[in-house]
Specification:
Blueprint: E1 3-11, E2 14-19, H1 28-36, E3 44-51, E4 55-62, E5 68-71, H2 76-79, H3 81-99, H4 111-117, E6 125-126, H5 138-146, H6 152-163, H7 166-174
Antiparallel strand pairs: 1-2, 1-3, 3-4, 4-5, 5-6
Helix pairs in contact: 6-7
């Protein structure tokens, strides 16, 4: 099947969308550049990527912020170039968030470090709060990822419905 990448831009008049070709993009900066090329006056830019009905990723860029990345399944980093690129960015973001916490890594009694070390490769990676202000809090996003039998396209549709951009992404899927 390959992958589907949909860039959605929110303007005061509503959402618009454009399918992106990410072949040849080498890093997150390249992904963000492609995403920003969709609209220079949007207040929010979202990129939804799904590959082979196996995993999905979300990249979010607001006006003056660094990109935020979420990857539904960490195993995609091992099986897909695009998954590796997005997963690496998501993992760096998650590490940066954790770096603000003062944990002594040498302390064997620190259960949070133990939990982090036992992360399953198939667990989601990155900023689960990426869509919190658009109707999908982190707990719901993680629950959708954990739900048995859910396809990435179905989850993305649910996320877009909550954010109010379902019509824009559906138009791209049907094109």
């Amino acid at each position: 099947m390959g992958y589907f990448a949909a860039a959605l831009a929110r303007h005061s008049s509503g959402w618009s969308g454009e399918e992106l070709d990410l072949k040849g993009v080498e890093d997150l900066d390249g992904v963000v550049e492609e995403l920003r090329s969709v609209s220079d006056d949007a207040d929010t830019l979202l990129l939804f990527v799904e590959e082979d009905d196996e995993w999905f990723a979300i990249v979010r860029v607001n006006e003056d912020n660094d990109p935020r990345v979420f990857l539904s399944d960490g195993r995609a980093m091992e099986t897909s170039e695009l998954g590796a690129l997005l997963g690496e960015a998501a993992a760096v973001a998650a590490t940066d968030d954790a770096a603000g916490d003062d944990h002594d890594e040498e302390d064997g009694d620190d259960t949070e470090d133990d939990e982090e070390g036992s992360r399953v490769a198939g667990d989601p990676v990155g900023d689960a709060d990426v869509l919190a202000d658009l109707g999908t809090p982190a707990a719901r996003l993680l629950a959708l990822c954990a739900e048995e039998g859910q396809l990435p396209a179905d989850i993305i549709s649910a996320l877009c419905e909550s954010a109010g951009c379902l019509e824009a992404i559906d138009e791209l899927r049907l094109a």
